[in-house]
Amino acid sequence: MSTQASNRSYRYPDNSQLPYYNGNLVHVGGNGTYCMPQNHDDIHYISSDDGSQTSNSRVHGFQAQYCTLDSSSANCVYPAHSSTSSQSISGSPLSQQESQSDHAYGSSPSASCVTQVPGLTLRDIENVMFGPDSDIVSPNSSLLPGTVLDENNWRELLGINTGDLRQVLIACGKAVDENACYMDTLMSELRQMVSVSGEPMQRLGAYMLEGLIARLSSTGHALYKSLKCKEPVATSSELMSYMHLLYDICPFFKFGYMSANGAIAEAVKGENFVHIIDFQIAQGSQWMTMIQALAARPGGPPYLRITGIDDSNSAHARGGGLDIVGRRLYSIAHSCGLPFEFNSVPAASHEVMLEHLDIRYGEAIVVNFAYQLHHTPDESVGIENHRDRILRMVKSLSPRVVTLVEQEANTNTAPFFLRYMETLDYYTAMFEAIDVARPRDDRKRISAEQHCVARDIVNLIACEGAERIERHEPFGKWRARLAMAGFRPYPLSPVVNSTIKTLLESYHSHYRLEERDGVLYLGWKKRKLVVSSAWC
Question: pTM above 0.85?
Answer without folding.
Answer: no
